[in-house]
Amino acid sequence: MTSKTTSKGTTAPRPADGGGEAAEPRNVPRPAAELFSLRGRTAVVTGASAGLGARFAAVLAQAGATVFAAARRIDRLNELADSDTRIHPVACDVSLAADRARLTGTALGVTGRIDVLVNNAATSGETRAEDESPDAFDDVLGVNLTAPFHLARLVAEAPAVDGDPPRSVINVSSILGLVTAAPLGGASYAASKAGLIGLTRELAGQWGATGTRVNALAPGWFRTEMTADLFGDERSSRWVERNTLLRRGGGAHELDGALLFLASDASSYCTGQVLTVDGGWTAR
């Protein structure tokens, strides 16, 4: 066992091997073929029961990470876990502080570490601002902004040992946090995703000296369960194609590289950034 004195002055024990394999030392060049490897690391992914979240969990596991996949729909998570023994399902409602603490506690209890956090869970509100009540607005911000903040804090405050790779927090924002997509989108959703970008930069600034990296991933229009109605409607689908430089929506696999870049040593000198993957939507 090794230990490290935390900022609160307590000594937190932790397995020297991080739960199975020794971690790579900090700031050491790696062979190009290993830059994106997550072997021996632990990742937490929220909103992992479907869509991009399920894809994120699978990709991180394929890169070698032990992944704690969190969502409310445990049946979906169990199906995901059946596909890869490195994926561990955790029932979690991120709107609840107790569930957030239990999620990170579960990961730490099993592997003794959290190296990567993907704040992917999100909900959408009403499209028209006139139809959205202040309470409903608060609910969206609670899931999309407050929960990522709390989870990032829990991860940043978890004990670490010398030689561990710097932690990577990835906040999944959206192009709707950068530009309007009216008549689609929504006030609470856009506000939460824009707030997530601001939060990313602030946490990167506050935690940079510790080595913890915080970045945002801002996807454009991707074909997922959440956008099935959008792409299922011919007029809406044409609207996406017309306004995207590549003239099509994205496939979920087209975020794999961006995710692995931010999660791995490939982005070891990257923090406080927004990586936009949108087929050129925001470049218009």
Task: Give a quick rundown of the structure.
The protein has 284 residues and is α/β, with parallel strands linked by helices. The chain contains 8 helices and 9 strands. The chain is globular, with a radius of gyration of 19 Å.
Overview of this protein structure:
Mean pLDDT is 89; it is low at 1-25. The protein has helices spanning 51-62, 74-82, 97-111, 134-156, 187-207, 228-232, 234-243, 256-263, and strands at residues 2-5, 11-14, 42-46, 66-71, 87-91, 116-119, 168-172, 213-219, 274-277. It has one domain (34-278): NAD(P)-binding Rossmann-like Domain (Rossmann fold, 3-Layer(aba) Sandwich). The N and C termini lie far apart (54 Å). The strands form 2 sheets. Strands 5-4-3-6-7-8-9 form a 7-stranded parallel β-sheet, sandwiched between helices. A two-stranded antiparallel ribbon has the order 1-2. The protein is built from 8 helices and 9 strands. The protein is globular. With 284 residues, it is of the alpha/beta class.
Counted beta strands: 9
SSE-based structural type: alpha/beta
Strand content: 15-25%
Briefly note the CATH topology name: Rossmann fold
Shape: globular
Write down the overall mean pLDDT. 89
